[in-house]
Amino acid sequence: MIRIGTSGWRYPEWRDGFYRSVPQRRWLGHLAEHVRTIEINSSFYRLQPPSNYRKWVAETPPDFVFAVKGPKLVTHVKRLRDVEDPLKTFFESLALGDKQGPIIWQLPPSLRFDHAVLRDFLAMLPPGRHALEPRHESFRSDTYFDLLRAHNVAHVVSDAPTFPCIEAVTADFAYVRLHGHDELYISSYSDQQLDEWAEKIHGWDRDTYVYFDNTMHGAAPRNALDLMARSTSPARR
Fold this sequence. Notes:
237 residues, alpha/beta, TIM Barrel, 8-stranded parallel beta barrel, 9 helices, DUF72, UPF0759_sf
């Protein structure tokens, strides 16, 4: 199972391209007609009420899946320490039902790998699919990979020019975030680059979630559709 989509959907920059002639209230539904998953970003910035999740569920097809970005209060403010209460509050707010996909925990670039801190954090996570996106070179470590494998947590394979791309598969599913190879959040992926990512994804031979985060100039939905076409081509079925 390979699900490919975008990181978020509320981008005015898409108005004259992908969302042309689509009213803003229909943006989520329109995107969900073309991709099989979307990453919810607003949950990173502030706690979302359950009513928002239920609304998004109602606007998407039955077989659709959302990934949800964990709150920055946990990852950036508290930096994974003493997070029992905010974790409980966050998970109690989720109301996606069968459309609940992985939870993505994006770490700040300044956060270095600390085995004890990460071990304690992973032990607090409830059952389900979780993915961790570190942005510091110190995470390029077998000790880190082994810790994720012990908890069946996916290391997020990230492609960006400003933080390391550490390619490792550590769970029974894989998670990829493509932020723009040359310009962060901006640059589009070439045909050759998309071919290379398609090869990697199929080589992992497991459920995979891929999100394009190169959103600022509207490349994300185009790239997502192009990678989907490569992933479902007759040669790969």
